[in-house]
Amino acid sequence: MADQRLTHGVSVAAVRRFLGDLKREFPDTYTEMTTEDACKQLVVPRTRQDNCAYVEQLRKQSPEHVNKATVFVSHAWRYKIADVLNVLLEFAQQQARKDDGQPVFFWFDLFMNNQNANVTANLPQEWWSTTFKQSIANIGHVLLVLMPWRDPVPLTRAWCLWEIFCGISNEGTEVTIQLPNSEEQALENAIRSSYKAVTDTLVRVQAQRADAFNPHDKHMIFTAIESWAGGFSAVNQAVKDQLRAWCLQKAVAAVEAMRARGEDSTDAFAGLCLNVGAVLSDFGEHDRAIAYFETALPIYLRTEGEKGEGVAALYNNLGLAYDNKGKYDKAIEFYEKALAITVEALGEKHPSTATSYNNLGNAYADKGEYDRAIAYVEKALAITVETVGEKHPSTASTYGNLGNAYDSKGDHDKAVHFYEKALAIKVETLGEKHPSTADTYNNLGGAYDSKGDYKKAIQLYEKALAIQVETLGEKHPSTASTYNNLGNAYASKGEYDRAVQQYEKALAIYAEALGEKHPSTASTYGNLGVAYQNKGHYDKAIELYEKALAIRVEALGEKHPSTATSYGNLGVAYQNKGEYDKAIEFYEKDLAITVETLGERHPSTADTYNNLGEAYRHKGKYDKAIEFYEQGLAIKVETLGEKHPSTAQTYNNLGIAYDHKGDLDKAVEFYEQGLAIKVETLGEKHPSTASTYNNLGLAFKNKGHYDKAVEFYEQARAVYVEALGEKHPYTAMTLANIGLLHDKRGEKEQACAYTQQALDAFTTTLGPDHPNTRKAKGYLLRICGNDERDDGGARTAARGEDDDEQQQGGSEQVQAVAGQQDAADEDELQERSPQQPLAGWLQKRGQWNIAFRTRWCTLGDDHLTYSKGPSLAERGRIPLSSVLSAELAHGGEELHVAVPGRTFVFRLDARSDTSLADWCTAINSRINVTT
């Protein structure tokens, strides 16, 4: 009997017959009977005499209704039995419509266990974790009957949780969640009251809350789940994914049902369309949301007229949906319609009018028109203060919006000022422990992050996190947003492993609460990509960027600014891999979408021009790079103003390009312009200011002004140590530059000391295998006289005299604004990376005579190799880490590559399709690396 209990099931016809028996024997009460009631009043009386399970009687009477179980039913005994049986019948109908149409046989404990004796009471825990779990695997399908939809009972019962776990942890076992039709009306009523009802319900799905009568049972179940790779997150996500799909499906079905009943011209229908649209928009389905808003609009227009409040609300919702789609002009069009109605219907001095001004301000901020955004938000603020007073949450929110606009403008001090005003009001009116107060702590953290005060930013983010965990729970999207922000701050500090931990927490929450295919999930994949990119794991970064891109294309469409961001990030990653043509291909996709969605005159368009400039600079096409930088600069000056950190960064990039061209005076001119802006907007002690000090140091070193160079390098180092710490990669890079300069001056002891410090810092923060760590190790080997040999016989050494590191700006990570997490993965400029190989025919002079021999030469990331032909064995190699200089000689007729103890001499061959100048530039670009 034990084997039958574990392996057999009853047919659909048997379930239907049992439901019929209930109706006949309890016609007035069967709809209210629980499974436990049905057991006591029908199953036990029928089976008491034989002391057997219901299935045993069924087998004797109708053996065709008992067979190998195909579905294991997980449910709660306090459910109404009619609901449970109807779910089984609905499920069977759905299965019958599938291609295979195989008969369904349910393992349902009411029928399969002997209810006259507690057959499972004395089973050992080992039985549950082995035999029972294997039985579910053999059956192959778990049907979880879930209700009520707002707070499902099975997730509060440890044994129900065990059944779910046995399903999802067995590879090949399918888990299906089904709710009874009776829950559909409850969902519809909830959505009519609040479109947030679905999100709120999903947040409450937390399997960790489950309990059991016997503490030992709970311990066994929780231990098993926690020790499984997926853990509770996988259990929660399995439930939430299907519950979310059910909610969205039934919400839409409720609208269609009203339409089918001919109620599609009623106020109730319009109201339901409005809220269902808001639900869909909340889950990133903006196109479907717009369709429902547009369905509701004619009804509101007919019943309220053009100037109705409901019409204004719909226009605002349409504006929000288009805003989320990245269609900012269309959003503004709807916001202006809403504004016109509220002004005429309610007057200029009304809170609803202030809301419309706020929405317009946010849309213009998204467009990059920050001064216009500020003007609208200031109008909103004046109205809000006059109508509801200074000490009101709405006033605080408007101060927050002003802070957002100033933060985007680069005026972080002003942003902090407004955020602090917002915070004071929220603490006073809502209390310290309120989600909205947490939002303001987040925004303050973002401003301090932008100011380079990462320690302060992390403190504020942690305050926000503590409040959100306490008030919203660990598994809420807003909590995930704060984990993302913490990740950004740790990434800025150079603590990339810690950043990854925060991003992974955010990702798990978003995937659970909003689903894998949600834009916020995509953003977090992007953030993880940036972190792995900074760790030097470019292939991993590309994998994550591609995940983000796939989600964004599906959720937001190809023509969306966030999709453009993903293309841009892929470009950066391929640039870091040295695949510049592929990088340019992605940057051009980014540019086309950005121009189409945001316009030519937008800061994001300027960023993409900058990225294109970077790719061409890495290819050695400096004039082309300068052309793109200048396009970016013109846009930034026009949209952000001359005195903006992002404008300063473009001046910095122009300086790097002219530095590589050899026009050092022009390079210094651009560096100094950038420096002046950074000091004014970010302050003397900001990491971005330090990057320009570093680059000025390099330029003056190249000009031969060593004392001036040391002065700038030391200024950079002091700022980095204070802002980022001794072990940050930027600090390490500047230490390496100082070491190289001392080496240039023949000051070996100081050179070795600084380079060792750089190596230690790189190893600590980036690990021994990161390109920067390997590079620093090479520097140390050369400077400090290590005699280790490389394959080609030349002594292994670091870069030559011009090895210094130039710095572009770090990643510009966007922080949470009013509690909404934007993609933090839009990096303006990234690290300099490996170069594309250069190959061709050259003539090489022999070591012991003056004869030149034709050789096929290949310049890679680390070596210049030569052979007798493209497919022939390598004859020798020159480690680039040993190169002291590469320069043209004899009027450009020869290329001299100097290493310790020898100078290699090359001439052009008749078959050469590149010039010696090309080779010289390419070699020098590899021994003058930027990060």
How does this model look, in words?
Residues 790-837 are annotated as: Disordered. This is TPR repeat-containing protein. TPR repeats lie at residues 312-345, 354-387, 396-429, 438-471, 480-513, 522-555, 564-597, 606-639, 648-681, 690-723. Residues 807-822 have a biased composition (Low complexity). InterPro entries: PH-like_dom_sf (IPR011993), PH_domain (IPR001849), Sel1-like (IPR006597), TPR-like_helical_dom_sf (IPR011990), TPR_rpt (IPR019734). The chain has 38 helices and 13 strands. The protein has a seven-stranded antiparallel beta sheet with strand order 10-9-8-7-13-12-11, with helices on one face. A six-stranded mixed beta sheet has the order 2-1-4-3-5-6, sandwiched between helices. It starts with a helix and ends in a 5-residue tail after the last helix. It has 931 residues and is α+β, with helices and mostly antiparallel strands. The chain is globular and about 110 Å long. Among the domains are: 2-253, no CATH class; 263-389, Tetratricopeptide repeat domain (Serine Threonine Protein Phosphatase 5, Tetratricopeptide repeat, Alpha Horseshoe), CATH 1.25.40.10; 838-926, Pleckstrin-homology domain (PH domain)/Phosphotyrosine-binding domain (PTB) (PH-domain like), CATH 2.30.29. 64% of the residues lie in helices and 7% in strands. Mean pLDDT is 83; it is low at 1-5, 786-805 and 808-835.
